[in-house]
From TrEMBL, chains A, B, C, D:
Keywords: Hypusine biosynthesis, NAD, Transferase
The protein's name: deoxyhypusine synthase
InterPro entries documented for this protein: Deoxyhypusine_synthase, Deoxyhypusine_synthase_sf, DHS-like_NAD/FAD-binding_dom
Molecular-function GO terms, alphabetical: deoxyhypusine synthase activity
Residues of the signal peptide: none
Any one cellular-component term (Gene Ontology): cytoplasm
Record carries keyword Transferase: yes
Family of the protein in this entry: Belongs to the deoxyhypusine synthase family.
EC supergroup of this enzyme: transferase
Amino acid sequence: MLFRVIYPPLYTTLMESITLPEDMPQIKGYDFNQGLDHKALLQSFLTTGFQASSFGQAVQEVNKMIEKRLEPVQEEHESCDSHTSASGCTIFLGYTSNLISSGVRESIRYLAQHRMVDVIVTTAGGIEEDFIKCLAPTYLGDFSLKGKELRQQGINRIGNLLVPNDNYCKFEDWLMPILDQMVLEQKTEGTHWTPSKMIHRLGKEINNPDSVYYWAYKNDIPVFSPALTDGSLGDMIYFHSYKNPGLLLDIVEDIRRLNSKAVFAKSTGMIILGGGLVKHHIANANLMRNGADFAVFVNTGQEFDGSDSGARPDEAISWGKIRMDASPVKVYADASIVFPLLVAETFAHNANRLIKEKKSD
Amino acid sequence: MLFRVIYPPLYTTLMESITLPEDMPQIKGYDFNQGLDHKALLQSFLTTGFQASSFGQAVQEVNKMIEKRLEPVQEEHESCDSHTSASGCTIFLGYTSNLISSGVRESIRYLAQHRMVDVIVTTAGGIEEDFIKCLAPTYLGDFSLKGKELRQQGINRIGNLLVPNDNYCKFEDWLMPILDQMVLEQKTEGTHWTPSKMIHRLGKEINNPDSVYYWAYKNDIPVFSPALTDGSLGDMIYFHSYKNPGLLLDIVEDIRRLNSKAVFAKSTGMIILGGGLVKHHIANANLMRNGADFAVFVNTGQEFDGSDSGARPDEAISWGKIRMDASPVKVYADASIVFPLLVAETFAHNANRLIKEKKSD
Amino acid sequence: MLFRVIYPPLYTTLMESITLPEDMPQIKGYDFNQGLDHKALLQSFLTTGFQASSFGQAVQEVNKMIEKRLEPVQEEHESCDSHTSASGCTIFLGYTSNLISSGVRESIRYLAQHRMVDVIVTTAGGIEEDFIKCLAPTYLGDFSLKGKELRQQGINRIGNLLVPNDNYCKFEDWLMPILDQMVLEQKTEGTHWTPSKMIHRLGKEINNPDSVYYWAYKNDIPVFSPALTDGSLGDMIYFHSYKNPGLLLDIVEDIRRLNSKAVFAKSTGMIILGGGLVKHHIANANLMRNGADFAVFVNTGQEFDGSDSGARPDEAISWGKIRMDASPVKVYADASIVFPLLVAETFAHNANRLIKEKKSD
Amino acid sequence: MLFRVIYPPLYTTLMESITLPEDMPQIKGYDFNQGLDHKALLQSFLTTGFQASSFGQAVQEVNKMIEKRLEPVQEEHESCDSHTSASGCTIFLGYTSNLISSGVRESIRYLAQHRMVDVIVTTAGGIEEDFIKCLAPTYLGDFSLKGKELRQQGINRIGNLLVPNDNYCKFEDWLMPILDQMVLEQKTEGTHWTPSKMIHRLGKEINNPDSVYYWAYKNDIPVFSPALTDGSLGDMIYFHSYKNPGLLLDIVEDIRRLNSKAVFAKSTGMIILGGGLVKHHIANANLMRNGADFAVFVNTGQEFDGSDSGARPDEAISWGKIRMDASPVKVYADASIVFPLLVAETFAHNANRLIKEKKSD
């Protein structure tokens, strides 16, 4: 904002600007005078600036994962190594529990249904809320409803969502016989239960195409949730353990399985919605391979408090969780708005190619 | 998560849930299996939860403003009161400077061009950056570019945007003769300059259909910016005052004009992007009429620090800035993503009706 | 801001204010003219407003936990129930990994050392970083250091902290023999390992009074970390499992143990720093007793994205995780500033009484 | 977290760490075993990490301003230039309105009373709330009180503060005669009113040592608030203008005065609490001198939305608002907690030297 020839006080001379590269994008938003074309509108985000540009970059980053995924993978003559992934890019999808409670669940279910992702990591709530929604609906409420009144009405609040206590009763009725059966199999067949095996089994039992984990079961997508006891599932396991004790859930076998998915991948991409365990767990697995090749984070966390949740992707590069030559993207936004739009411009946009690929496997 | 009949420890009985109203929306996200229909995707946001639902509610709230606006306004027989607005709903649009630097500018320009809003409030940067963009482009950079290196290159950073010093030099060349002219008119014609009058004049001078304020000038939409000296315009006015002193910018006449816009409106709606002055100034004007009838806030501020920027709409109800029976909406999001989508589903969606209405005025 | 008798436009009459209660605190900050008295300064926070007041309320809430804790617990004649806590208030402390990396660790260690808390919940990093700090220091860096350069230098970044790779090598050297021993004990003695048992053992092995978990071991404070494999410990366990396979870590026994701590407590208090797993896990355990009696959350999360991390305590009341008649407090702040000050005004302030109580056990 | 000699999968070798500089601070928090020494506790923040370290750095930065301020300023032989500041460091203090509503006001008043700062910038509310507090108290409420109920009770909410309507009535009674007098002086004496002159006058009229602006008046500290009409003052001016029209408030003279304060300073320091206008206005004035020498920002804004409020100090370096060789500090925190502590460790800590200096002027 300064000034070349000014009198009297010429305290400063303006630094002459360097010439910016020819191909540097100019900022330009969508012009509604050209009519309402949603596709073009979303494409204009790349040159809109701020988080709109970050969204545009996230679309590009996920589409890079998809292109890599679609690359023909050379048949290893000696396919003796059964670990090696058949996909050109192993995509790790992580999300916090609340997103399954929200309508983002339907986007996630779509990805699992069409085997568009390879590994899922979520928290206990991210598992159980999917099954509960097969049993009874979640409702739209308001962030400011009073806890005491809701408690007296038997209604639980998750942000602006409402879940009646009855839903958890239905879940209990559904789950308890399965827990009995799991204990029986452990005792009689020596089944070694881990969180991922339990989720696989529950996905089979729910037998409902609305369920994310039904499709993960069908498509053999492993789902990791090491703290699976931290939620309603844990409550049930706790009470059940008094009636029918003995169930073991081992987390060592799961960490081997998760890390192997990263280690034996041709290349990897991480798509992580929210922070906490799910973000750290996927990134840590990718450390085992010296870093993911592609990464998109969507969350509202900030780095200033030193949390892993809020850390920028660049922090993960220092650890070797993301490769030094990668171009990771963080979108600072609530995933409920951004993730469905991101799926639209990436996986759904490429649905024909991705689904064909799957079928021709 | 609790349990009806459990042994041994039955410490708690689950409160039975009340029956929720039949018409309470169930949470359900978009199903990409039905194909990629962006319009339907955005409509699904209302039942997606969290900020996606807030976006859906914001769409409804702005559409209420539009319907009210399109209502036939009864001709007052004695149309002696020239103050009274001819529109069924006077829409106040406010935004911070950075949004004009970003591609959100094109959405705002569309609204001004088609006279879809009635009053604009912004900060000094929100004025000057619009004119500067008529003279030279703004570029897409990165949040992590180093300030010292940019300074040495003559490049200024705004988030992930870059503005070369040269742009400000061009602005200076354009503005200085206009300031001379303004001082002359003040001295010879007794023009009483206020920020809104100066902006009107600059909009006329820029004479460029890319400019928001060109259209505000053409369509006689008043633009208020009481701290108009807080930016490059102020720098110029400061230096110019040594060469050619005497310019006055009076803020008293503008507060009369702004408040009158609220007071004499049939009904009012507020659409405010970002916080600080623009949020407070519009809300304070609406206090003069015992509160706005409709309100949408889009920003990333939080209430915990007691800032007006982060305050929820409910705080404004306590002050009488929003009516007690209104249903104001706050979307916690970066406006660069949300505002173009919001315009798409409201003003652009109703473009035919709104533009016809304007023409038939 | 409106006006009783004004002409011409009297659109509004000001609602007369109700008389506020006599004992309602008036806002008044610290007067430095009375000299610099830090204790009085911190006490003035209660009437300073915004988060300063929340801090003051958090001090009151923790001091209520302490008073309850110090109440004489009636001897049960039939003390057959070994589960029942001997303390008047069982305090659950949770914190995210980064706080152990920071100097907040010393505050936490103080609480463990003097048995001022009863149950600890943290993430894998919250365990391992404590041990690593016994082996080599963590340094103060800067949030903006470049990930690529740090990676090339073998330095890992955690916010503005730096941890050299060497520290992890030292950790490996220390841990591997212990893992061998754990596998041996499992095979030969049938030890049933859980995360909390492993942490207890590591606390014994580190044998260093700088360590939080050394004191947790000494004072028999259980430490829960169900996803203990999610970090460097998991990396080690993963690699170790190829050399010396077979280790099991069961999370079912730990959920029984954690929940029992809540269920059998006379009353409970929750002090939770940060979000994610640690916040949910403690609150979920307290659901098993129909809610905690006291609660303080310190974090920077926001509720708008529907995350459990950002949820206000009032959401937990709807779930029965906090009692309906409790007065829980959330402080929106980075715990690195707030928690040492909170410990100062609560536990450290009452150190004489608390430490005496412990000794007379 | 990787591993030197591991079999079978040795995918990665750990980069050896560089040796960090000897004087790099090690992370170490306060040890309460040494007793409760608040001063030492606050000093330990520098090595505590995250925002505690940022606080420690802010203390250092403000103390640098103070040392510079206390340096003997060489007498200019020809002291003809009355503009030149007599202080070694001209300190600009900015804060948003809510901080005057809170108890932070008493810290600010202390700084004004003892002439520890040289220039103040705030918003309209930051002016009027100080005077209103001289007439009637503000109370501590709660963030979740319902707007509709408060409105019906005549109570206004500011975060967790409450201000009765009556307070504004008292303010009206006090202000209206002063406005009459100002119009009279303008008409009879040709007084050219600007926001800073009006604030000076109001500071004189309030004649109350609790008032920040009383002391600003007494100590001749200019207070800038270019959008002075944006609040209750503007409401009053608006209504008053119908009874007694003609008052002018010119913002051009004030921008000259503010910029001159920066331009003619020996060196400058900026202390800015909150964002919006106050942050931009001070930084823009310092652009006129090619950047401030010292800077501390305290706010909760984030850079991701491209707002000036949330911008890191490094963005201001690109603009030349802060010098390239400066070491500016941002503390991400609510100022209600941080600012009183910051004043304690800087201005109050140096009170004897600072107040002596003032007296010997």
